[in-house]
Structures are given as C-alpha cells and as structure tokens.
Amino acid sequence: MLKDVKVLDLTRLLPGPYCTWILSELGADVLKIEDPWEGDYARGTPLYDLINTGKKSLTINLKKDAGKKIFFELMSKSDVLVESFRPGVMDKLGLGYETLKEYNEKIISCSISGYGQNGPYRDVPGHDINYISISGLLGINRTAESPMIPGMPIADIGGGVFGALSILAGLYKRKIDGIGEYIDVSMTDVVSSFFTIAYRGLINETLLSGLLPCYNVYKTKDAKFLSVGTVEAKFWNNFCRRMNRDDLIQRQYDTSAIEEIKGIFLEKTREEWMEIFKGEDAMVTPIYSPDEAFDDPQTKYRKVFDREREILSFPVEFSENKTEGGKKAPKKGEDTSKILKELGYEERNIENLKEDGVI
C-alpha cells in the first residue's frame, strides 16, 4: 500500500520505532539510521525485535561531515524522515527542517518528543510515566489510595500511532499540492487528547473506577479473575439471569451489590464461570496473563503475534491488500555497504569511511 514510499528512521526505543514499524508493515521502505558505536538502546531486547521487523539498517556518524553528506544524499531520495531526539538536537546537528528542505523540499519530516517542539517543557526530559502524569491520565487511573501505573506505555504507543497517522495525512496532502510538511508530535498532547474525553464528562468516573457492580473485576475460586462489562441493561439482565440471581437485576448501579457478587464468583473457578456464561450476551471475559492471552483462540485466529517466530503482525486486516508481516529485525548496520554502493560509493571509499569512524 505504501510501496515506493522511502522512510528514514532516526528513532530509538519505542515511540518512533513503533511509528515506523506501522509504515513498514503498510509497505514503506524503512531505513533505520543508527550511530556506529551504540545504535538503538533497545537492541538486544524482545522489544527491538518486535517493532523493527522489515526495516533496513545503516550506521553513520551524523556528527561528521562525511556522515552528513551520506545522510543528505539519502534525504534527497526519501519521502519521510522520522526522528525522536530531544527538541533542538536536529538543529545542532545541522539537520533541522529548514536545512532538510534545501535538499528535498517535499520531505515529510516528523518529530516525536515528550512535550513537543515548543512550550515551557520543551527541553525537559521524561518518560511515559511523566507524560501520563502531566496530562492527567495517571490521576484518574487510580485506587482510592494512590494512582496506579498502567501495565503498558500509553504515551509511547499513542505517540507512535499518531505519528504514523499524521505522516499518512502528510503524504496524502503532498499528492494533492506537492508541498512537504513538518509534523510535531507531543506524546503528552496525545495522552491529553485521551484524558480530555474523561475530563469533559463524557466518561463516567464512577463507571471506570470499579465502583459499580456492572463494570468490575471479580476474583474466582481458583484465584484467577474475570471482567464484567455489562453497562447496558439488557446485558446486565442476561448476566444476572445466568447467575440465577434475578434479584440483582434492579441493582445494576448499587455499589453495595459488589461485595455480594464477589462472594458469588468465589464459589466457582474461572473456567467453570466461563462455561456458565458461554453463548450468553453477558460481557464476561477472563482476565489473562500475557501467555494466556497469546493462547486464546481468538488471538490465534487473527494471528497478530506468531509465538514460534516471535513476530508481531499488523493488527488490522485489509480486504484487497496484505501487510508486510513475517520479516526479521535487522542487525545493526547490516545494510550499510549495500546502501552506500547504491549511492555510488566504491569499496575503497567504504573502507575509508569505516577507518574514519563515519560508518
């Protein structure tokens, strides 16, 4: 779908690589550019192997003039650049957007950062926990005693998704007017957009805080858990009837019913309860561990994650196109020589660049 779209990827860790993984899965030719001495900090971890599949890898030292020369040669032939340095780093390297346009005026350049390229927190370092704190999201994800850290990096993943979405919009716009674009993705802004839905009262705080019996988590006899999401009355009615407790139908929003239902669920194992609710529109699901989730028949059928090969597939199906799943993540710099030769560099030039610490 994105065949012939060339992407230069200067990102590390999770947000940027997840963004370019999406583009790669949609068919873009993604070239991961890393420094020769360390590379992506996530290398050697399962995370790296999951979200860098299908990409090529080139190592160049962007602090050296010869490295910049290679970069600009690639830039002139590319459609998209994605970077996740702290604001100002690209300018210090001489690679700011205004400079990039001198080599390729149609480039779609995307910066993914914690707080954005402007504002009072522009230069403040941070990680996912900081961004969800500032945005207010962590403040509503809490028990009565304390905020609870989510089990996944919401800002990082959200930033990657919105980065990819915005790049696709930029590419579409460029097809119409032929003009490039600079995209400033703030992970805090992304999470703020999630939080605002709750802030403006569109989500019931009581509902999402585990204070209602119809939208809650319950422990079973075997010390496992089930989730109940019977927000609509018809589903709550089905839930109560299947438990042989018609007397609870009028208590959907009665917080005092929670303890009573907890006691009921402790009478049987999770598997026994799932058998009871099988085929019933009651919105009861098991709460899985990661390993259990991968073994669920629905997950297996949709083939999002190949456990044997440890490969993540694009989580959306298209009727007329297939995504690029099934490839491995590249070793650091494994495509360097090939790419330089495609740019016209001879073997002796490449060896000299290695000796000079450029690649």
Automatic annotation (TrEMBL):
UniProt keyword Membrane, yes or no: no
UniProt keyword annotations, A-Z: Transferase
GO terms for MF: transferase activity
InterPro entries per record: CoA-transferase_III (IPR050509), CoA-Trfase_fam_III (IPR003673), CoA-Trfase_III_dom3_sf (IPR044855), CoA-Trfase_III_dom_1_sf (IPR023606)
A Pfam family per the record: CoA_transf_3
Protein name according to UniProt: CoA transferase
